[in-house]
Write a structure and sequence with these properties.
Length: 161
């Protein structure tokens, strides 16, 4: 797994406002182990990710972990609606990190003004990746719209009429 992906564990912890020492204590792991997980030096066990998702208030972290680290991840849906503010931020980070190489790849393909057969395959791969980014951005919009709709509902009162 690449270094950027491993930093997602750290990103979610920091987005939740939890210091590494406190997280390690709640996760029942050493600070060194948590640091190793966050820096890609050790594989994060599923049960620890489950605890991280709860502690950091980011169910998306568990979804991402399974989607990228398990053979069963292919059965998970591509659109995951964030459940918390931390999920929303994480979904944005995932989209941004995926988009940068897509843009660079398309720029390279288009640099000579023609698309040959090999480039066509690469372009198709980039378009597939763009669909993934689109799903992530759509999930953020869905989360936001649901939040706004929920906040704009009239509050029920217990006042007699």
């Amino acid at each position: 797994m690449n270094k950027v992906c491993m930093l997602y564990y750290k990103t979610c912890r920091e987005s939740a406002g939890i210091k590494q020492e406190i997280a390690a204590e709640h996760l029942n792991v050493s600070i060194r182990s948590l640091s190793d997980y966050e820096n890609g030096k050790a594989r994060v066990p599923d049960d620890i990710v489950d605890s991280m998702a709860e502690l950091y208030r980011s169910p998306l972290l568990a979804w991402w972990h399974l989607k990228t680290n398990s053979v069963l991840g292919k059965y998970l849906p591509d659109v995951f609606e964030p459940k918390t503010e931390v999920d929303m931020v994480f979904q944005g980070i995932l989209a941004k990190d995926k988009l940068s190489p897509i843009v660079e790849g398309i720029k390279e393909i288009m640099s000579d003004g023609t698309i040959d057969d090999l480039e066509e395959d690469a372009l198709n791969d980039h378009i597939d990746d763009m669909r993934i980014v689109n799903n992530k951005l759509t999930s953020i919009i869905l989360w936001h719209d649901a939040r706004i709709k929920k906040e704009s509902r009239p509050k029920a009162t217990n006042q007699p009429k």
